[in-house]
């Protein structure tokens, strides 16, 4: 597929009656760079594509004149091909996604998946750049807030507490999820699917919060309170021992937290 993104940028810029300099200033590049895009000498960096689309008030799909249905289908195929390698062989996962980005430059969903495969802190600058471009440029809320989360986690690993906090403050506080509402309001398989997924997510979240509280009490010099939080976490994991796998699940809560359970038991015995 021949990409005419440079022609599209020139067309949109003229429709908006702005100069190359104005667009360049907004994007933080030189006007020569914009000129090269429009003359098809070079292509915009993939991290700039969401911001370009946002500037003109269109989606990245429209910027590249892609058919939305076909694009979504092809992108999902690329993501499905990459997922078995995520967390197992991240280099291969990244390779698949970057090949996809050559076909569909700047695609928000592919970029969002890509940052999961890039190691931090080794390549944290790259992760930060992609997250920032998605936060500013994407029209998809789930992509934007996931990018905020990953940006915050990256800053946390770098020891940048203030920047991590700033990134988190971009995420709205919501006290319910769509899955919870689907489980409460829908019927049949729709209700089952939502409740089944949310059950495991809620358990994972609860265990993470108990760990945070235990660490806080430990740091505050209150070991007995820390011990109570750890005992609750232990009991929660054990409560899922009789749970079973259903379609689409890779592991139960008990199976996925078995290693954590061993660590909890060891820490409790040492207290």
Could you describe the 3D structure shown?
By secondary structure, the chain is mainly α. The chain contains 16 helices and no strands.
- The helix fraction, in percent, is 55-70%
Q: What is the H-and-E element order?
A: HHHHHHHHHHHHHHHH
Shape: elongated
Number of helices: 16
Question: How widely separated are the two ends?
Answer: 64 Å
Short summary of the structure?
With 271 residues, the chain is mostly helical. It has helices at residues 5-16, 20-27, 31-38, 49-56, 60-63, 68-82, 90-103, 108-114, 124-137, 141-157, 161-168, 178-185, 188-219, 223-239, 253-256, 258-270.
What are the defining features of this structure?
single chain; 0% strand; 271 residues; elongated; mainly alpha
Map the helices and strands:
Blueprint: H1 5-16, H2 20-27, H3 31-38, H4 49-56, H5 60-63, H6 68-82, H7 90-103, H8 108-114, H9 124-137, H10 141-157, H11 161-168, H12 178-185, H13 188-219, H14 223-239, H15 253-256, H16 258-270
């Amino acid at each position: 597929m021949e990409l005419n993104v440079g022609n599209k940028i020139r067309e949109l810029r003229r429709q908006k009656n702005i100069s190359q300099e104005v667009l360049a200033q907004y994007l933080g590049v030189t006007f020569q760079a914009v000129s090269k895009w429009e003359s098809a000498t070079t292509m915009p960096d993939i991290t700039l594509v969401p911001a370009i689309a946002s500037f003109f008030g269109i989606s990245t799909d429209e910027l590249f004149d892609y058919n939305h249905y076909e694009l979504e289908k092809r992108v999902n195929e690329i993501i499905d091909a990459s997922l078995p390698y995520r967390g197992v062989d991240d280099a291969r996962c990244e390779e698949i996604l970057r090949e996809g980005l050559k076909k569909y430059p700047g695609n928000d969903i592919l970029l969002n998946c890509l940052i999961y495969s890039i190691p931090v802190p080794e390549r944290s600058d790259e992760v930060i750049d992609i997250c920032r471009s998605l936060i500013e440029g994407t029209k998809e809320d789930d992509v934007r807030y996931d990018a905020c989360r990953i940006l915050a986690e990256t800053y946390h690993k770098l020891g940048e507490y203030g920047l991590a906090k700033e990134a988190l403050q971009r995420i709205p506080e919501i006290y319910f999820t769509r899955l919870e509402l689907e489980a409460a309001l829908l019927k049949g398989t729709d209700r089952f699917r939502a409740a089944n997924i949310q059950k495991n997510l809620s358990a994972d979240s609860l265990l993470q919060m108990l760990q945070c509280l235990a660490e806080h009490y430990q740091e505050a010099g209150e070991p007995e309170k820390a011990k109570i939080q750890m005992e609750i976490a232990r009991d929660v994991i054990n409560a899922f021992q009789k749970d079973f796998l259903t379609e689409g699940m890779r592991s139960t809560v008990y199976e996925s937290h078995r290693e954590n359970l061993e660590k909890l038991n060891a820490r409790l015995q040492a207290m």
